[in-house]
Amino acid sequence: MERKQASDYPQEVLDLFHEYQHGDMSRRDFIEKLQKFAVGGVTAMAIYESLKPNYAWAQQVKTDDARIKASRETVQSPEGNGHITGYFVHPASGSKFPGVIVIHENRGLNPYIEDVARRFALAGYVAYAPDGLTSVGGYPGDDEKGAAKFREVNGPKMLEDFVASAKWLKANPLCTGKIGAVGFCFGGGIVNQLAVRLDGDLAAGAPFYGRQPSAEDTAKITAPLQLHYADPAKDPGVGNGIAPFVAALKANHKVYEEYVYDGAQHGFHNDTTPRYDEAAAKLAWQRTLDWFGKYVKG
Q: Which of 76, 101, 104, 87 has the alpha carbon at shortest distance from 269?
């Protein structure tokens, strides 16, 4: 399939896709609303298919790369859904590594997130990417089905599953005991919540276009945070929360950096869809590596 960019679509189409992905619109309504953009022989279904993720685009690190070792690991979560499984990956050589927990979007542990975990392994980290859909059978191999399953999960218990995963990673024999957290969309919001919950157990966080905590919860954060946001004009749902969050971080004298990527769409780091913005994604990734290099490796 030819790779398209966000600029190939009217912003309204991208906004509709965003609503659909976040469960605010049924598939039938989404296809129906696409009809007005179906011109010149291009059908609404063709537009829809072009917007869906293509995982082949996202594989920057092959699953059998000899430089890394990967496995599926289960973490006990008595306060959550009982247990959670995830993708565990680390450099093939060495005995102790700083850790990174990688939190997925609202579709479960898909190949894009697994690849992000492998990228961290190549950067010298032991990474764990838990699957929040474990309690409903796990990621089903399809983002559309994953989004539907996501709405079946007990949200508060899933948060406890992620907290348990972070603590498990920190205590893992392969980890130095210092961990960072990175997450995207829903996962970005979870990173912010982990920063609220984990106190000194989290060395640093890098939430990508994640929902922000309340001012009261922000006061509880101790981990340095590096915030990555899409253009607020293109992602108002998250963008409207930037200023209050930054104000609360400042008022409570927290360590943070804030980056807004002008022109970038929500999901700009996800290199499986047309919303991917290569320049913004690469810059945000390097900034994240530098941030974790300072606070998690250091």
A: 104
